[in-house]
Prior knowledge:
This protein is of the alpha/beta class. 36% of the residues lie in helices and 23% in strands.
Amino acid sequence: MDVTAQSIEMAGGALISATSFGSGDAGNIDARATSNFELRDSGTGILSNAQGSGAGGDVALRTQGGRLRLEDGAAITAQTTRNARAGDISIATGSLELLGGSMIDNSTSAQGRLKGEGLTTGSAGSIEIVASESVRLASMSTQGDTSRVTSRSLAESSGAAGSIRITAPAVRVGDRASISATADGPGTGGEIQLDVMDLALSEEGRISTFAAVGAEGGSPGDGEARSIRIRSTGEVRLRDRSEIEASVGANRGGDVEISRPRSMVLEDESRILAQARADDGSGVGGRIEIRADAFFASPTSTVSADSSAGVNGEVILTSSIATIEEDLRPVEASLLDAGTLLRPPCEARAASAGGSLVVASKAPEPIDEERWLSSSLVIGERRESQESIAEVEGALRRMDDAGRALADGKLEKARRELDALSEELDDSDRVSTRLLVFANRARLDAEHGSWETAIRSTREARRLADALENDFVRWASRVHLAQTQILLASKASKRRVQLVEGAHRDLVDAVRIARVLGTAREYSASLGRLARRYEMEGHREHSLALVRDAIGAGEQFNTSAELHLWYAMEGRILWTQGRASAALNSYRRAVDAAARLRRAAFRDPRYESKVSHQALDELHLAYIDLLFQSADLGVDADAQSRLFAEVRRVAELSQAVALEDYFRDECVALLESRTRTLDELVSEYGRGSGSRLSDCSFEPRRAARRDVVRISKGYVYRGV
């Protein structure tokens, strides 16, 4: 049966059917739509079923780049009920959606079997899905049926389940939806193969090949589970109790192979299993092999190839970035111990069966750690450049001027500075500086609402990043690209998912490169930014594990530029978990780390922007707010007094920072007014000594050199 149309829409129980009831084979169905193909409502479907002894027919559905959508219980099936094989199902489309309990089903059973007849022997057919854009399974029907792609041998059949192969850039399985190739009887489970860029399982989504129980009496089955092979070039993520499983009742568990994703993430009690569940010791666990650039698993997740009473299987993990939880450090006891702070409410009723009081409070807002992309890429490039200090610092000055203009809302001035720098670099081999220009142009275009231009600038920046050879500059470029995309994602809602996923990939790359560099500073910076990305997406448990590892690496330096930000992130997450004492301890560390960094800023101008009064004001206010909220949680008088003393300390520290910045700016203004006189002095000294004027400049904000001593943001001459 052939059906061809511009678009096909079926609803209200409509059917396309090629079913046989005798010894003949069921017919084939070939349906093509040049745009969209939609099936809607329970009872609506495309069926090729063999109800007699004949074989099932094949079902082939095609759309030319359009969408195939099944919803509200619609179905595509190819089934057999006796000893012949079911037909195959093949789908080629732009995007495939199965919603509201819809299904693609290829199964074998013994429907209509007479009492006393043995098991049928028919096997299920195969399912092949090719989508040029995405495959999505989600949402249950009102009756509680889940959406699913399944090849299944039912309990009354000894036949094998068929294979399932899906090829698509993105596959998403959620809301208890499933992709499965299972044998409920003594037959073997089928094989499942996914060739994807990104795979996401959420809300108990499931991929499984399973050999379960025998047909008669519910005894363990003799069949084997087959393999699940997932090839990915992007991210594989399981969350919310999702599963990938290749298990059996008896016999040997199947294989699970996940190869070469950039990152593999398990969180929220998710599991990867290849188990044998027979209690008589007859089962052997399967084999799980995961090869990923980065592998992260939360403490509540499971990877297991064990056997209930038999021989365990094996789990092989190959990753350049190991699971984070192995190296977690316990949080030190707080000076503000929760036991001394919190008094049980309604204490007079403690002995009676009374009600309860729940104290809720607002979590602090995250600090915006990157308002403008800094010039560290230029500094990194200078390490191997033969250009003069003046040339490199000219690029630094223009970049900083553009950043200040953007911060002040002077978008046109910022654009002029970037355009001028871009013209200077047209024939330059300074790849990283050009990369930084494109990254900041993307931010500027986003402020103007020019999303397509912003994304093109980001793509050009990535192209340049791929050409870099210096490991330090490659690391810095990935961090900058991730920051750019996160900034764009906050403004371009239509491209948010694409941009956030791109940022995640760049941050995972940055973590990997930092490991190669072997420096804890870069490793801390990369992990902290990756943790921030997870926090933004609401994955606080995993974010907490990452940020603690970032803190552990950052504490190896007395002056880590982001350590105070990572402590603050830890505090925010702990506060949302109801761990008030630990949260306050983290914020106290954040404030102290910022104070150390501020002292270091008098020697190193790179830290200036991170420890200004404006940058630290949010941190101080967030900590003070939590201290006040803690004081309201029914604490005793002594604990409340300690909390208020800490409030006073932080408030005084914040005021001191503001005053220091005010007087420093006054000093800068005074020095700037004397620049002409100082330049004349340097010029006179240069003629007498042969020194280059470019090596003895006094312009504020330039890097410190041998002839100048830094005073806050200004410089005074030391050579004469």
